[in-house]
Amino acid sequence: MISATRSLPWALLLLASLVRADTPVLHEYVPNADEDELAALVRGRGGQPAAIVYRGELVEPPPGGPRRRDEQPMRADPGDGQGREEPGRRSPAFRPDRVTALEGTLGYFSVFSPTIAPFKRVTALDAVVEADDGTPVLGVANPRTAPLPVVGLDSPTDEPRDRFWGSVVLDFRSGRRVPLPSVAPQSRVLSLHTEPETQLRLEKDAADNFFAVLEAGPRVEVRLTFLMDAPRRYFGMALPEVSSDALAGTIFPLPAATRRDALTFAAELGLRPGDDLSKVIETLTRHFRSFVESDEPPPSTGRIFLDLARGMRGVCRHRAYGFVITAQALGIPARFVQNEAHAFVEVRIVGRGWLRIDLGGAAEALEAHGAEDRPVYRPAQRTPLPRPPAYRESYSQLRGDVRGLRSEPDDTPAGDPAPGAAAGSQPRGERQRRPRALDTLLGQEPTQSQTQAARPVRLRLDHERYDAHRGQPMLVTGRATDPDGRGAVGLRIEVLLRDESERLLGVTATEEGGLFRATVGLPLDLPVGDYRLVVRTPGDGRYLPATAR
Predict the structure, then answer these.
(1) Which is more confidently placed, 63 or 265?
(2) Helices 256-268 & 304-311, crossing angle to 10 degrees?
(3) For residue 143, what are the CA distances in angstroms to 125, 139, 250, 354?
(4) CATH superfamily name and code, 2-56+431-548
(5) Of 164, 216, 218, 217, which is closest to residue 190 (Cα–Cα)?
(6) What is the pLDDT of residues 354-381, one digit of tens each?
(7) How many other CB atoms are found less than 10 A from the CB of residue 496?
(8) CA-CA distances (angstroms) from residue 379 to 273, 418, 479?
(9) Domain ranges of the chain
(10) What is the dihedral sign for C-alpha 394, 187, 235, 285?
(11) Quick one: which of 513, 527, 427, 503 has its CA closest to 14?
Protein backbone atom coordinates (compact mmCIF):
# COMPACT_ATOMS: atom_id res chain seq x y z
CA MET A 1 0.00 0.00 0.00
CA ILE A 2 1.19 3.51 -0.75
CA SER A 3 -0.19 6.91 0.27
CA ALA A 4 0.45 9.83 -2.05
CA THR A 5 0.60 13.33 -0.53
CA ARG A 6 1.47 16.77 -1.87
CA SER A 7 5.03 18.00 -2.27
CA LEU A 8 7.15 20.34 -4.39
CA PRO A 9 7.58 19.34 -8.07
CA TRP A 10 10.34 16.89 -8.83
CA ALA A 11 10.63 15.05 -12.12
CA LEU A 12 10.02 11.33 -12.32
CA LEU A 13 13.45 9.74 -12.06
CA LEU A 14 14.40 6.08 -12.27
CA LEU A 15 18.01 5.04 -11.84
CA ALA A 16 18.43 1.33 -12.47
CA SER A 17 21.24 0.18 -10.16
CA LEU A 18 22.99 -2.77 -11.75
CA VAL A 19 26.04 -3.28 -9.59
CA ARG A 20 27.66 -6.04 -11.63
CA ALA A 21 27.71 -4.18 -14.93
CA ASP A 22 31.39 -4.67 -15.66
CA THR A 23 31.20 -4.77 -19.45
CA PRO A 24 27.96 -3.48 -20.98
CA VAL A 25 27.05 -4.77 -24.42
CA LEU A 26 27.45 -2.05 -27.02
CA HIS A 27 24.19 -1.13 -28.78
CA GLU A 28 22.25 -4.29 -27.88
CA TYR A 29 18.48 -4.00 -27.59
CA VAL A 30 16.92 -4.34 -24.14
CA PRO A 31 13.92 -6.69 -24.45
CA ASN A 32 10.46 -5.11 -24.31
CA ALA A 33 11.68 -1.84 -22.84
CA ASP A 34 12.10 1.60 -24.29
CA GLU A 35 14.28 4.50 -23.25
CA ASP A 36 11.83 6.21 -20.94
CA GLU A 37 11.09 3.00 -19.02
CA LEU A 38 14.76 2.46 -18.21
CA ALA A 39 15.36 6.18 -17.65
CA ALA A 40 18.36 6.00 -20.00
CA LEU A 41 20.93 5.12 -17.33
CA VAL A 42 22.53 1.88 -16.18
CA ARG A 43 24.98 1.88 -13.30
CA GLY A 44 27.97 -0.34 -12.88
CA ARG A 45 30.34 -1.22 -10.08
CA GLY A 46 30.63 1.51 -7.46
CA GLY A 47 27.55 3.28 -8.77
CA GLN A 48 29.40 4.69 -11.78
CA PRO A 49 27.55 5.09 -15.11
CA ALA A 50 28.06 1.94 -17.17
CA ALA A 51 25.68 2.53 -20.08
CA ILE A 52 22.83 4.69 -21.24
CA VAL A 53 19.74 3.46 -23.04
CA TYR A 54 18.75 5.20 -26.24
CA ARG A 55 15.85 4.03 -28.42
CA GLY A 56 16.05 0.63 -26.74
CA GLU A 57 19.83 0.25 -27.14
CA LEU A 58 22.48 -0.10 -24.48
CA VAL A 59 25.18 2.43 -25.35
CA GLU A 60 28.38 2.14 -23.34
CA PRO A 61 30.98 4.90 -22.80
CA PRO A 62 33.24 5.67 -25.76
CA PRO A 63 36.65 3.98 -25.60
CA GLY A 64 39.39 5.87 -23.82
CA GLY A 65 43.11 5.85 -24.43
CA PRO A 66 45.36 8.05 -26.56
CA ARG A 67 44.08 10.20 -29.40
CA ARG A 68 43.13 8.20 -32.47
CA ARG A 69 43.57 9.12 -36.12
CA ASP A 70 39.84 9.81 -36.49
CA GLU A 71 39.85 12.40 -33.68
CA GLN A 72 40.59 16.13 -33.70
CA PRO A 73 41.83 17.57 -30.39
CA MET A 74 40.40 20.80 -29.05
CA ARG A 75 43.06 23.50 -28.80
CA ALA A 76 43.44 26.57 -26.63
CA ASP A 77 44.54 28.89 -29.43
CA PRO A 78 41.48 30.41 -31.16
CA GLY A 79 40.50 30.48 -34.79
CA ASP A 80 40.55 33.68 -36.81
CA GLY A 81 36.76 34.07 -37.10
CA GLN A 82 36.93 34.55 -40.87
CA GLY A 83 34.31 32.37 -42.54
CA ARG A 84 34.13 28.66 -41.73
CA GLU A 85 35.44 27.45 -38.36
CA GLU A 86 38.72 25.57 -38.14
CA PRO A 87 38.59 22.04 -36.68
CA GLY A 88 39.53 21.95 -33.00
CA ARG A 89 39.41 25.72 -32.48
CA ARG A 90 36.77 28.12 -31.26
CA SER A 91 36.43 31.45 -33.02
CA PRO A 92 35.85 34.45 -30.73
CA ALA A 93 33.99 36.22 -33.56
CA PHE A 94 32.44 35.66 -36.98
CA ARG A 95 33.00 38.01 -39.88
CA PRO A 96 30.87 37.23 -42.95
CA ASP A 97 32.44 36.43 -46.28
CA ARG A 98 31.12 36.37 -49.85
CA VAL A 99 32.12 32.80 -50.71
CA THR A 100 28.61 31.51 -51.37
CA ALA A 101 29.55 28.52 -53.56
CA LEU A 102 28.79 24.87 -52.86
CA GLU A 103 31.46 23.54 -50.53
CA GLY A 104 33.37 20.30 -51.04
CA THR A 105 33.51 17.37 -48.64
CA LEU A 106 33.38 18.60 -45.05
CA GLY A 107 34.88 16.59 -42.20
CA TYR A 108 32.99 16.38 -38.90
CA PHE A 109 34.69 14.97 -35.80
CA SER A 110 32.20 13.16 -33.58
CA VAL A 111 32.33 13.77 -29.85
CA PHE A 112 28.95 12.52 -28.63
CA SER A 113 27.13 9.20 -28.55
CA PRO A 114 24.36 9.09 -29.67
CA THR A 115 25.91 11.23 -32.36
CA ILE A 116 24.35 14.63 -33.03
CA ALA A 117 26.18 15.09 -36.33
CA PRO A 118 26.58 17.75 -37.61
CA PHE A 119 25.24 19.79 -34.66
CA LYS A 120 27.80 19.74 -31.84
CA ARG A 121 28.20 23.17 -30.26
CA VAL A 122 31.74 24.54 -30.42
CA THR A 123 31.21 28.28 -30.90
CA ALA A 124 28.10 30.24 -29.89
CA LEU A 125 27.92 33.99 -30.62
CA ASP A 126 25.13 36.21 -29.28
CA ALA A 127 26.16 39.83 -29.96
CA VAL A 128 26.28 41.99 -33.09
CA VAL A 129 28.96 44.70 -33.23
CA GLU A 130 30.37 46.84 -36.03
CA ALA A 131 33.92 46.42 -37.30
CA ASP A 132 36.00 49.48 -38.16
CA ASP A 133 34.74 49.33 -41.74
CA GLY A 134 31.11 49.17 -40.61
CA THR A 135 30.63 45.44 -41.25
CA PRO A 136 28.30 43.78 -38.71
CA VAL A 137 30.41 41.15 -36.93
CA LEU A 138 29.17 38.55 -34.44
CA GLY A 139 30.79 38.05 -31.04
CA VAL A 140 30.05 37.16 -27.41
CA ALA A 141 28.28 39.85 -25.40
CA ASN A 142 29.65 38.73 -22.04
CA PRO A 143 32.73 36.47 -22.28
CA ARG A 144 33.16 36.30 -18.51
CA THR A 145 32.95 32.66 -17.40
CA ALA A 146 31.32 31.07 -14.37
CA PRO A 147 31.96 27.63 -12.82
CA LEU A 148 30.13 24.73 -14.41
CA PRO A 149 29.55 22.08 -11.74
CA VAL A 150 29.53 18.35 -12.27
CA VAL A 151 26.01 17.83 -10.91
CA GLY A 152 26.13 14.06 -10.45
CA LEU A 153 23.96 11.23 -11.69
CA ASP A 154 21.13 11.83 -9.21
CA SER A 155 20.63 15.53 -9.91
CA PRO A 156 16.87 16.19 -10.23
CA THR A 157 15.33 17.90 -13.23
CA ASP A 158 11.94 19.45 -13.92
CA GLU A 159 11.85 18.55 -17.65
CA PRO A 160 12.57 15.55 -19.89
CA ARG A 161 16.25 15.34 -20.76
CA ASP A 162 18.30 13.00 -22.94
CA ARG A 163 21.76 11.74 -22.05
CA PHE A 164 24.86 11.65 -24.24
CA TRP A 165 28.31 10.20 -23.75
CA GLY A 166 31.11 12.56 -24.66
CA SER A 167 34.75 11.80 -25.39
CA VAL A 168 37.21 14.42 -26.56
CA VAL A 169 40.96 15.03 -26.44
CA LEU A 170 41.91 18.41 -24.96
CA ASP A 171 45.26 19.85 -26.05
CA PHE A 172 46.55 22.13 -23.29
CA ARG A 173 49.99 22.65 -24.82
CA SER A 174 49.11 26.15 -26.06
CA GLY A 175 47.11 27.28 -23.03
CA ARG A 176 45.24 26.20 -19.91
CA ARG A 177 41.68 26.99 -21.12
CA VAL A 178 40.40 24.76 -23.91
CA PRO A 179 36.94 24.82 -25.55
CA LEU A 180 34.71 21.90 -24.64
CA PRO A 181 32.03 20.88 -27.17
CA SER A 182 28.48 20.68 -25.81
CA VAL A 183 25.12 19.30 -26.89
CA ALA A 184 22.86 22.20 -25.90
CA PRO A 185 23.07 25.55 -24.08
CA GLN A 186 21.42 24.11 -20.98
CA SER A 187 23.42 20.89 -20.94
CA ARG A 188 24.54 19.55 -17.58
CA VAL A 189 27.67 17.51 -16.94
CA LEU A 190 26.70 14.46 -14.87
CA SER A 191 30.10 12.76 -14.59
CA LEU A 192 33.60 13.01 -16.01
CA HIS A 193 36.83 11.05 -16.16
CA THR A 194 40.28 12.16 -17.32
CA GLU A 195 43.19 10.22 -18.83
CA PRO A 196 45.77 10.74 -17.48
CA GLU A 197 44.22 11.75 -14.16
CA THR A 198 44.24 15.54 -14.28
CA GLN A 199 42.90 18.37 -12.16
CA LEU A 200 40.36 20.18 -14.33
CA ARG A 201 37.50 22.54 -13.72
CA LEU A 202 34.68 23.32 -16.12
CA GLU A 203 33.32 26.78 -16.97
CA LYS A 204 30.90 28.40 -19.37
CA ASP A 205 30.25 31.96 -20.48
CA ALA A 206 26.99 33.88 -20.91
CA ALA A 207 26.55 32.53 -24.47
CA ASP A 208 26.84 28.99 -23.09
CA ASN A 209 30.25 28.28 -24.56
CA PHE A 210 31.81 25.50 -22.47
CA PHE A 211 35.46 25.34 -21.38
CA ALA A 212 37.80 22.93 -19.60
CA VAL A 213 40.48 24.66 -17.52
CA LEU A 214 43.70 22.95 -16.46
CA GLU A 215 44.22 23.69 -12.78
CA ALA A 216 47.51 21.93 -12.22
CA GLY A 217 50.02 19.72 -13.95
CA PRO A 218 51.95 19.84 -17.23
CA ARG A 219 50.41 21.12 -20.44
CA VAL A 220 49.69 17.89 -22.26
CA GLU A 221 46.89 16.22 -24.17
CA VAL A 222 44.16 14.94 -21.85
CA ARG A 223 41.24 12.71 -22.80
CA LEU A 224 38.00 13.74 -21.16
CA THR A 225 35.18 11.18 -21.08
CA PHE A 226 31.96 12.61 -19.69
CA LEU A 227 28.23 12.07 -19.42
CA MET A 228 26.12 15.06 -20.41
CA ASP A 229 22.38 15.61 -20.66
CA ALA A 230 20.28 18.15 -22.55
CA PRO A 231 16.65 19.30 -22.46
CA ARG A 232 14.63 17.30 -24.96
CA ARG A 233 12.75 20.37 -26.10
CA TYR A 234 15.96 22.05 -27.29
CA PHE A 235 15.81 19.76 -30.34
CA GLY A 236 12.15 20.44 -31.14
CA MET A 237 9.10 22.05 -29.55
CA ALA A 238 5.80 23.69 -30.38
CA LEU A 239 5.99 27.48 -30.52
CA PRO A 240 3.83 29.45 -28.05
CA GLU A 241 1.50 32.28 -29.03
CA VAL A 242 3.49 35.21 -27.63
CA SER A 243 4.92 38.47 -28.90
CA SER A 244 8.20 38.19 -30.76
CA ASP A 245 9.74 41.00 -28.67
CA ALA A 246 8.78 39.61 -25.25
CA LEU A 247 12.47 39.05 -24.44
CA ALA A 248 13.89 42.03 -26.35
CA GLY A 249 15.36 43.48 -23.17
CA THR A 250 17.79 40.55 -22.85
CA ILE A 251 19.48 41.21 -26.22
CA PHE A 252 22.82 42.98 -26.50
CA PRO A 253 21.94 46.28 -28.30
CA LEU A 254 22.48 46.17 -32.05
CA PRO A 255 24.46 48.96 -33.71
CA ALA A 256 22.03 51.61 -34.94
CA ALA A 257 22.87 51.22 -38.64
CA THR A 258 22.62 47.42 -38.46
CA ARG A 259 19.29 47.61 -36.67
CA ARG A 260 17.89 49.95 -39.33
CA ASP A 261 19.01 47.63 -42.12
CA ALA A 262 17.61 44.57 -40.34
CA LEU A 263 14.22 46.18 -39.71
CA THR A 264 14.09 47.36 -43.32
CA PHE A 265 14.72 43.82 -44.50
CA ALA A 266 12.22 42.37 -41.99
CA ALA A 267 9.55 44.73 -43.31
CA GLU A 268 10.22 43.40 -46.81
CA LEU A 269 9.25 39.98 -45.41
CA GLY A 270 6.14 41.46 -43.82
CA LEU A 271 7.56 41.36 -40.27
CA ARG A 272 7.86 43.93 -37.51
CA PRO A 273 8.64 43.87 -33.76
CA GLY A 274 5.69 42.68 -31.71
CA ASP A 275 4.38 40.24 -34.33
CA ASP A 276 3.44 36.76 -33.15
CA LEU A 277 6.56 34.76 -32.35
CA SER A 278 5.54 31.73 -34.37
CA LYS A 279 4.83 33.89 -37.43
CA VAL A 280 8.24 35.55 -37.21
CA ILE A 281 10.20 32.33 -36.74
CA GLU A 282 8.29 30.51 -39.47
CA THR A 283 8.81 33.37 -41.94
CA LEU A 284 12.51 33.71 -41.20
CA THR A 285 13.03 29.96 -41.36
CA ARG A 286 11.27 29.67 -44.72
CA HIS A 287 13.32 32.53 -46.17
CA PHE A 288 16.76 31.41 -45.01
CA ARG A 289 16.11 27.72 -45.75
CA SER A 290 15.34 28.79 -49.32
CA PHE A 291 18.86 30.07 -50.02
CA VAL A 292 20.82 28.50 -52.87
CA GLU A 293 24.54 27.88 -53.15
CA SER A 294 26.09 29.90 -55.97
CA ASP A 295 29.49 30.52 -57.50
CA GLU A 296 28.29 34.09 -57.99
CA PRO A 297 27.73 35.94 -54.69
CA PRO A 298 25.05 38.63 -54.51
CA PRO A 299 26.09 41.99 -56.01
CA SER A 300 27.89 44.12 -53.46
CA THR A 301 26.35 47.37 -52.25
CA GLY A 302 28.83 47.72 -49.39
CA ARG A 303 26.20 46.50 -46.89
CA ILE A 304 26.95 42.79 -46.62
CA PHE A 305 24.07 41.89 -44.30
CA LEU A 306 21.48 43.26 -46.73
CA ASP A 307 23.33 41.82 -49.70
CA LEU A 308 23.23 38.29 -48.26
CA ALA A 309 19.73 38.48 -46.78
CA ARG A 310 18.15 39.84 -49.94
CA GLY A 311 20.31 37.91 -52.40
CA MET A 312 19.38 34.51 -50.87
CA ARG A 313 22.71 32.98 -51.88
CA GLY A 314 25.05 31.20 -49.56
CA VAL A 315 25.74 28.18 -47.41
CA CYS A 316 24.93 27.51 -43.77
CA ARG A 317 27.04 30.29 -42.25
CA HIS A 318 25.50 32.98 -44.49
CA ARG A 319 21.99 31.81 -43.63
CA ALA A 320 22.64 31.68 -39.90
CA TYR A 321 24.31 35.12 -39.97
CA GLY A 322 21.34 36.74 -41.69
CA PHE A 323 18.79 34.96 -39.49
CA VAL A 324 20.44 35.99 -36.21
CA ILE A 325 20.71 39.69 -37.07
CA THR A 326 17.12 39.87 -38.34
CA ALA A 327 15.73 37.95 -35.37
CA GLN A 328 17.54 40.15 -32.87
CA ALA A 329 16.25 43.30 -34.54
CA LEU A 330 12.72 41.91 -34.12
CA GLY A 331 13.31 41.28 -30.42
CA ILE A 332 14.09 37.55 -30.46
CA PRO A 333 17.25 36.43 -28.60
CA ALA A 334 19.17 34.46 -31.21
CA ARG A 335 22.63 32.92 -31.45
CA PHE A 336 24.93 31.92 -34.28
CA VAL A 337 26.37 28.45 -33.51
CA GLN A 338 29.00 26.60 -35.51
CA ASN A 339 31.57 23.85 -35.64
CA GLU A 340 34.02 22.75 -38.31
CA ALA A 341 31.28 21.38 -40.60
CA HIS A 342 28.10 23.34 -39.99
CA ALA A 343 26.50 26.55 -38.71
CA PHE A 344 22.98 26.81 -37.30
CA VAL A 345 21.01 29.05 -34.95
CA GLU A 346 19.45 28.98 -31.50
CA VAL A 347 16.48 31.09 -30.45
CA ARG A 348 15.24 31.62 -26.93
CA ILE A 349 11.55 30.85 -26.42
CA VAL A 350 9.60 32.52 -23.61
CA GLY A 351 9.27 30.18 -20.65
CA ARG A 352 10.82 27.23 -22.53
CA GLY A 353 14.50 27.90 -23.01
CA TRP A 354 16.58 27.59 -26.16
CA LEU A 355 15.50 25.93 -29.39
CA ARG A 356 17.86 24.72 -32.12
CA ILE A 357 16.89 25.67 -35.68
CA ASP A 358 18.79 24.29 -38.64
CA LEU A 359 18.72 26.33 -41.86
CA GLY A 360 20.45 23.81 -44.12
CA GLY A 361 23.20 24.81 -46.49
CA ALA A 362 24.69 22.12 -48.65
CA ALA A 363 28.12 20.68 -49.19
CA GLU A 364 29.10 18.08 -51.76
CA ALA A 365 29.53 15.55 -48.97
CA LEU A 366 29.79 15.16 -45.20
CA GLU A 367 32.32 12.74 -43.75
CA ALA A 368 31.83 11.96 -40.08
CA HIS A 369 34.86 10.68 -38.19
CA GLY A 370 34.53 8.35 -35.22
CA ALA A 371 30.78 7.75 -35.52
CA GLU A 372 30.58 4.36 -37.24
CA ASP A 373 29.42 2.50 -34.11
CA ARG A 374 27.19 5.20 -32.62
CA PRO A 375 23.41 5.52 -32.91
CA VAL A 376 22.14 8.69 -34.56
CA TYR A 377 20.14 10.97 -32.28
CA ARG A 378 16.66 11.87 -33.53
CA PRO A 379 14.57 14.57 -31.83
CA ALA A 380 11.42 13.35 -30.12
CA GLN A 381 9.38 16.24 -31.53
CA ARG A 382 9.78 18.32 -34.67
CA THR A 383 9.25 22.06 -34.48
CA PRO A 384 6.50 22.93 -36.99
CA LEU A 385 8.58 25.00 -39.41
CA PRO A 386 8.64 25.19 -43.22
CA ARG A 387 10.76 22.53 -44.91
CA PRO A 388 11.47 23.36 -48.57
CA PRO A 389 12.49 20.33 -50.71
CA ALA A 390 16.11 21.47 -51.03
CA TYR A 391 16.34 21.75 -47.27
CA ARG A 392 14.95 18.25 -46.70
CA GLU A 393 17.69 16.81 -48.88
CA SER A 394 20.55 18.76 -47.28
CA TYR A 395 23.52 17.14 -45.58
CA SER A 396 22.49 18.65 -42.24
CA GLN A 397 19.50 16.30 -42.43
CA LEU A 398 21.94 13.46 -43.16
CA ARG A 399 20.73 13.18 -46.72
CA GLY A 400 22.84 12.85 -49.84
CA ASP A 401 26.51 11.90 -49.73
CA VAL A 402 26.96 11.40 -45.98
CA ARG A 403 29.70 9.00 -44.90
CA GLY A 404 30.98 7.54 -41.66
CA LEU A 405 27.67 7.12 -39.83
CA ARG A 406 26.22 3.84 -38.67
CA SER A 407 23.43 2.35 -40.76
CA GLU A 408 20.07 3.00 -39.13
CA PRO A 409 16.96 0.79 -39.26
CA ASP A 410 15.08 3.50 -41.17
CA ASP A 411 15.99 6.47 -43.34
CA THR A 412 14.47 9.16 -41.14
CA PRO A 413 16.68 12.28 -41.17
CA ALA A 414 18.51 13.10 -37.95
CA GLY A 415 16.53 16.30 -37.64
CA ASP A 416 13.16 14.54 -37.47
CA PRO A 417 11.48 12.02 -35.20
CA ALA A 418 10.76 8.66 -36.73
CA PRO A 419 7.34 8.59 -38.42
CA GLY A 420 4.66 7.61 -35.92
CA ALA A 421 7.22 7.04 -33.16
CA ALA A 422 7.27 8.60 -29.73
CA ALA A 423 10.37 9.71 -27.89
CA GLY A 424 12.61 6.83 -26.95
CA SER A 425 10.90 4.25 -29.13
CA GLN A 426 12.52 1.89 -31.57
CA PRO A 427 11.10 0.38 -34.77
CA ARG A 428 8.32 -2.12 -34.14
CA GLY A 429 10.28 -5.04 -35.49
CA GLU A 430 13.21 -4.35 -33.20
CA ARG A 431 10.99 -4.17 -30.11
CA GLN A 432 10.24 -7.89 -30.42
CA ARG A 433 13.88 -8.93 -30.27
CA ARG A 434 14.92 -10.62 -27.04
CA PRO A 435 18.71 -10.91 -26.78
CA ARG A 436 20.67 -11.63 -23.63
CA ALA A 437 21.27 -7.94 -22.99
CA LEU A 438 20.42 -7.75 -19.28
CA ASP A 439 21.94 -11.14 -18.52
CA THR A 440 25.20 -10.21 -20.19
CA LEU A 441 25.16 -6.75 -18.63
CA LEU A 442 24.95 -8.34 -15.19
CA GLY A 443 27.66 -10.84 -15.94
CA GLN A 444 25.17 -13.75 -16.06
CA GLU A 445 25.09 -16.19 -18.99
CA PRO A 446 22.04 -18.50 -18.85
CA THR A 447 22.99 -22.15 -19.02
CA GLN A 448 21.30 -24.74 -21.22
CA SER A 449 19.52 -26.26 -18.23
CA GLN A 450 18.21 -22.85 -17.20
CA THR A 451 16.64 -22.22 -20.60
CA GLN A 452 15.07 -25.65 -20.92
CA ALA A 453 12.56 -25.33 -18.03
CA ALA A 454 11.50 -22.10 -16.33
CA ARG A 455 11.17 -22.29 -12.54
CA PRO A 456 8.85 -20.39 -10.21
CA VAL A 457 10.23 -17.28 -8.56
CA ARG A 458 9.08 -15.43 -5.45
CA LEU A 459 9.17 -11.62 -5.14
CA ARG A 460 9.29 -10.04 -1.71
CA LEU A 461 9.15 -6.35 -0.81
CA ASP A 462 11.11 -5.08 2.16
CA HIS A 463 8.21 -2.88 3.33
CA GLU A 464 4.45 -3.43 3.43
CA ARG A 465 3.53 0.27 3.44
CA TYR A 466 5.12 3.35 1.88
CA ASP A 467 4.25 6.94 2.76
CA ALA A 468 5.39 8.94 -0.26
CA HIS A 469 5.08 12.54 -1.39
CA ARG A 470 3.83 13.20 -4.89
CA GLY A 471 6.74 14.27 -7.05
CA GLN A 472 9.47 13.15 -4.61
CA PRO A 473 11.71 10.10 -4.96
CA MET A 474 10.68 6.84 -3.33
CA LEU A 475 13.03 3.90 -2.79
CA VAL A 476 11.52 0.48 -3.46
CA THR A 477 13.62 -2.54 -2.43
CA GLY A 478 13.13 -6.27 -2.20
CA ARG A 479 14.39 -9.68 -3.27
CA ALA A 480 13.61 -12.36 -5.85
CA THR A 481 14.29 -15.98 -4.89
CA ASP A 482 13.91 -19.38 -6.55
CA PRO A 483 12.19 -22.40 -4.91
CA ASP A 484 15.47 -23.31 -3.18
CA GLY A 485 15.76 -19.85 -1.60
CA ARG A 486 18.62 -18.71 -3.84
CA GLY A 487 18.65 -15.25 -5.33
CA ALA A 488 17.35 -14.90 -8.90
CA VAL A 489 19.84 -12.65 -10.67
CA GLY A 490 19.24 -10.61 -13.82
CA LEU A 491 15.43 -10.49 -13.71
CA ARG A 492 13.57 -7.49 -15.08
CA ILE A 493 11.57 -5.88 -12.26
CA GLU A 494 8.68 -3.51 -12.97
CA VAL A 495 7.35 -1.09 -10.33
CA LEU A 496 3.72 0.05 -10.78
CA LEU A 497 0.90 1.88 -9.01
CA ARG A 498 -2.56 0.35 -9.22
CA ASP A 499 -6.03 1.73 -8.51
CA GLU A 500 -8.59 1.52 -11.33
CA SER A 501 -5.71 1.25 -13.77
CA GLU A 502 -1.94 0.74 -13.66
CA ARG A 503 0.86 3.28 -13.95
CA LEU A 504 4.40 2.13 -14.65
CA LEU A 505 6.79 4.03 -12.36
CA GLY A 506 10.01 2.42 -13.45
CA VAL A 507 12.03 -0.65 -14.35
CA THR A 508 15.16 -2.13 -12.81
CA ALA A 509 16.82 -5.56 -12.57
CA THR A 510 17.80 -7.91 -9.76
CA GLU A 511 21.38 -7.88 -8.61
CA GLU A 512 23.60 -10.43 -6.89
CA GLY A 513 21.59 -12.37 -4.34
CA GLY A 514 18.35 -11.50 -6.12
CA LEU A 515 18.22 -8.06 -4.53
CA PHE A 516 16.55 -5.22 -6.39
CA ARG A 517 16.21 -1.51 -5.75
CA ALA A 518 14.58 1.25 -7.76
CA THR A 519 14.35 4.95 -6.96
CA VAL A 520 11.14 6.17 -8.53
CA GLY A 521 9.01 9.31 -8.32
CA LEU A 522 5.24 9.57 -8.10
CA PRO A 523 3.67 11.41 -11.07
CA LEU A 524 2.86 15.05 -10.36
CA ASP A 525 -0.71 14.61 -11.61
CA LEU A 526 -1.45 11.75 -9.22
CA PRO A 527 -4.46 12.53 -6.98
CA VAL A 528 -3.82 12.38 -3.24
CA GLY A 529 -4.94 9.06 -1.78
CA ASP A 530 -4.08 5.41 -1.11
CA TYR A 531 -2.76 3.16 -3.87
CA ARG A 532 -1.56 -0.40 -4.21
CA LEU A 533 2.14 -0.77 -5.02
CA VAL A 534 2.78 -3.63 -7.43
CA VAL A 535 6.19 -5.12 -8.17
CA ARG A 536 6.33 -7.81 -10.82
CA THR A 537 8.60 -9.62 -13.25
CA PRO A 538 7.60 -10.91 -16.68
CA GLY A 539 10.06 -13.76 -16.17
CA ASP A 540 12.57 -15.02 -18.70
CA GLY A 541 13.85 -18.35 -19.98
CA ARG A 542 14.91 -19.30 -16.45
CA TYR A 543 11.99 -18.09 -14.31
CA LEU A 544 8.23 -17.79 -14.59
CA PRO A 545 6.38 -14.47 -14.20
CA ALA A 546 5.67 -13.38 -10.63
CA THR A 547 4.04 -10.48 -8.74
CA ALA A 548 4.45 -9.04 -5.26
CA ARG A 549 1.77 -6.72 -3.79
Answers:
(1) 265
(2) 20
(3) 10, 9, 16, 19
(4) Immunoglobulins (2.60.40.10)
(5) 164
(6) 999 999 997 889 999 999 989 999 998 8
(7) 19
(8) 30, 9, 37
(9) 2-56+431-548, 80-142+235-410, 145-231
(10) negative
(11) 503
List own/partner pairs for 76-80 with CB under 8 A and 24 or more apart. Answer: 76/171, 76/172, 76/173, 76/174, 76/175, 76/176, 76/177, 76/178, 77/174, 77/175
pLDDT digits (tens, 9 = 90+) for 489-546: 988 898 888 776 677 888 888 988 999 988 877 776 678 888 888 898 988 878 888 8
Residues 6+ away with beta carbon under 8 Å from 372: 404, 405, 406
Number of neighbours of residue 33 by Cβ within 10 angstroms? 20
Q: Report pLDDT digits (tens) over 456-493.
A: 889 999 987 877 776 677 889 999 999 888 999 988 89
**Cα–Cα distance, 504 to 520 (Å, whole number):** 10
DSSP-derived secondary structure letter, 292? B
CA 11 to chain centre: 18
Write out the H or E segment, with its range, that includes residue 217: none
Q: What is the C-alpha R_g of the chain? A: 25
Backbone phi, psi, residue 485, to 5° = 85, 5
Enumerate residues 6+ apart whose C-beta is below 8 A from 284: 269, 271, 323, 326, 327
531 three-state secondary structure:
strand
CB-based contact 244:277 (threshold 8 Å): yes
Sign of CA dihedral 396, 399, 403, 406: positive
CA torsion through residues 189, 193, 196, 198, sign: positive
Strand partners, 43: 17, 49
Q: Is 70 exceeded by the pLDDT of residue 415? A: no
337 contacts 319 by C-beta, under 8 angstroms: no
Percent of the chain residues topping a pLDDT of 90? 57
**Is the omega angle on the peptide bond into residue 196 within 30 degrees of 0, that is, cis?**
yes
Considering only CA atoms, which of 63, 175, 71, 182 is closest in space to residue 116?
A: 182
Selection from 403, 398, 420, 258 nearest residue 327 by Cα: 258
Q: Length of the chain, please?
A: 549
What is the amino acid identity at position 392?
A: R
CB 377 within 8 A of CB 114: yes
Look at residues 40, 34, 33 and name the one whose alpha carbon lies nearest to residue 16.
40
Sign of CA dihedral 27, 33, 38, 39: positive
Query: What is d(CA 171, CA 221) in angstroms, rounded to the nearest whole number?
Result: 4
Give the strand pairing for 188-195 and 343-349: unpaired
Judge whether 379 and 415 are in contact, CB under 8 Å.
yes
